Amino acid sequence: MDFTLTVEQRGLVDSTRSLLTRRASVEHARRLIDSTEGFDADLWKDGTDLGWPALGIPERDGGLGQQVVDLALVCAELGHGLAATPFIPVSVAADALATSTAENKSKLLQLISEGSLIVGWAFTEFGRPWGTLGISTAAVPQGGGYRLSGTKVNVQDADAAQFLVVDALLDGAPARFLVPTDARGVEVVRQQTLDLTRSYCDVRLDDVLVDGSALCAAGADAAAAITRSMHLHTVLVCAELVGVGQRLLAMTVDYVKERVQFGRPVGSFQAVKHKCADMRIWLQGSTAATYHAAMVLDAAPENAGPESAADVERAVSVAKAYTSDAAGRIAGEALQLHGGIGFTWEHNLHLYLRRARCGALLSGDARFHRETLCRLLESASV
């Protein structure tokens, strides 16, 4: 595959990094730690002007109609700048709505692309596996509508969203619903997590009544749509980890060039050079695996057959398994090479380490995706 950026993609990357540099997004993220705000609203507004929420939305619905790889490029820059924005949940939710049967979806997508509406994705459940088999939230038909009950966890920026795409079981089969966060029976509770610069929430659904138009997909269509959302979310998380790794490597190289010990910069010592080289290799592998997964997902037909679906699953799991491990190693080496200053609250390194550790667990950890790859190998050999 050709990893060379087009002129448009290079412009997207440059404009995003320029905005994040100008806005000093790390300092803004620090100010969010002790605040009740879940993300940097001003940065999100500026990002909306650059077209962030509109990137993956079809042109017929007011978006820019770009591909997954373009979303991944932006995610990498957001990770590099440690930006606190709802880009990932909004992108996944917008993609889910674009392929749904929801009423007024064009209007909703238009509002999302304008930045005036935030929609999140409520999928993960406590103690349940990553996948459709982990869904236990129940939906029951009632009076022309549906009653939803269950609890979702790790829902990014749910406390700032006006709607949530909620995945549940309807008559024992997967189904998707668009649920207003202000509906009666919806309780959003912000979690305390390792990543202090991002908002993750528990969403409790206590006999939440929604009308019939809230149903976005059911049965086989819902299962396919949920799988698509899982793959997209995983690729975007990997891309963010790539950006985090880029920043950690750059911070570390700059530091070892300046830190003097025994009359020499510590970066001149062979052992330190080897560690930086290892970080670079892990980062290059993560970058290649992530963008390969994004391109495979872009190339997959809408109604992919078993073989094409397996290719996507394989590429996505390779990317997440490798990138999750690599991000942890890069963060660990960066911390060691920074020495004592790396352990201080004032230095930004720990904020990136926190983002890396949390990202490694989202969308299934490395162990989960290695097990997925084993199952794919077993099925291919039968």
Automatic annotation (TrEMBL):
Residues in Acyl-CoA dehydrogenase/oxidase C-terminal domain copies: 226-374
Coiled coil: none
Cofactor names: FAD
Keywords of this entry: FAD, Flavoprotein, Oxidoreductase
Keyword Transmembrane helix: no
A Pfam family recorded for this sequence: Acyl-CoA_dh_1
CDD domains assigned: ACAD (cd00567)
Occurrences of domain Acyl-CoA dehydrogenase/oxidase N-terminal (ranges): 7-115
Gene3D superfamilies per record: Acyl-CoA dehydrogenase/oxidase, N-terminal domain (1.10.540.10), Butyryl-CoA Dehydrogenase, subunit A, domain 2 (2.40.110.10), Butyryl-CoA Dehydrogenase, subunit A, domain 3 (1.20.140.10)
Cross-referenced InterPro entries: Acyl-CoA_Oxase/DH_mid-dom_sf, AcylCo_DH-like_C, AcylCo_DH/oxidase_C, AcylCoA_DH/ox_N, AcylCoA_DH/ox_N_sf, AcylCoA_DH/oxidase_NM_dom_sf
Single annotated GO MF: acyl-CoA dehydrogenase activity
Similarity comment: family membership: Belongs to the acyl-CoA dehydrogenase family.
Protein name (database record): Acyl-CoA dehydrogenase [Amycolatopsis mediterranei S699]
Source species: Mycolicibacterium parafortuitum (Mycobacterium parafortuitum)
